[in-house]
Amino acid sequence: MRTVSVYDLVHYLKNTLDSDKRIQNILVSGEISNLTNHFSGHLYFTLKDDKAKISCVMFRSSASKLLFIPKNGDHVVIRCNISVFEATGQMQAYALEMKPDGIGELYLRYEELKRKLADAGYFSEEHKIKVTSYPMHVAILCGDRSAALSDIMTCFKRRWPICHYDIYPVLVQGEGSAKDIIDTLKIVDDKDYDAIILARGGGSLEDIWSFNDEGLAKTIYELKTFIVTGIGHEQDFTIADFVADLRAPTPTAAVELITPNIKDILVDIKDYHKRLKVAFDRRLKSAKTDLETIKGSIIFKEPSYIIKKQAQYFDNLSLRMINHEVRLKDMNKQISLKIISIAHALHLRLDRVTNLLENKEELMKRVIDQRKIDKELLLKRYETLLRAYSHEKTLERGFSIVMKDDKVLKDVSDLKIQDEIEIRLYKGTLKAEIKEIKDGKV
Predict the structure, then answer these.
(1) Where are the beta strands (DSSP E) in 68-200?
(2) Fewer CB atoms < 10 Å away: N or C end of the chain?
(3) Who contacts 435 (Cβ-Cβ below 8 Å, separation ≥6)?
């Protein structure tokens, strides 16, 4: 059995928990106890129910985003990762988010749908549509005669009164409200609006639950028209807000985010009008100056001046054409003489080159014939020498070739007693066996 250190054991347990996806990014509900708000900004607490408890920590980066102040006895839901703190070997939950548990099951369903749609890309910025700078035709989906609708209309009247808007009353809570909103959105999407406002006033999670409907989220995602949501209070976030092209904290803010302020536009128009008038006056003054200059021109005082000027111009052109014609004839004559001269020179040169080539050809023929004779004589000489120095001539004079294992022997040191050798004569071959080697000689 292998012995391990405490660190190795705790480190193994930590890695095992960290790699288990079933206990990472999960939602856990329970009651807060032993809460410590550390001066560093971190929260340390225990989360318990009637059967168990677990130590928890929420680091400052997450705790600073809480929308409420937690206290002992609060029932909450936390989104967390489960791991081991190696220094103490204690298993604990690392909280990333925390919500009061008064909403219970609804909040758990909300978080689950939020993660599902986020993973499917429904919240991606690449899919969102940009609103036009000056929307002139807007559809408003809101509760009939609601305070939110009144606020939106008041904001349009104050901020962008030249915009035409159509009101589509929809159910904003209760049974059938999500389907009513979906059906209305599909109708509105085919009417070529510049923008759609989907809004309702504040309320509890139960009140605004219709806007967390998965079918509504998919409908908003598939819209061809830009849509802005203004649902609930500033701290309320619904699934519809995440899918929409733009989320406003309130219904009034939805109007403010998509429309310019007409007061600013009027100021800009006045500024443009002023700048245009200055530019027009400057251009008009310049045009008047140009007109006075033209009126003082000699053309208006003596209209025939331009005709005389053009007549003189044409006379000059005629003289230049005559001169060019004479020069052209002279150039043609010179070119013809030059061509004849060049042709004669080329003919003479061609004759000289032809004679030179013929002489070179004759000389080359003689040189080649002489070299052929010299090579034939040299070849005969080499043949005679080759026959004279061939091994057959040597054997014919009484010499022999001694071989061992098909190799010519040149030194007796390559032999030993009882070696078999082959002696090649001019006529025939002998085989022998070495019986004795004396004084380095056989």
Answers:
(1) 75-85, 90-100, 137-142, 164-169, 195-200
(2) N
(3) 417
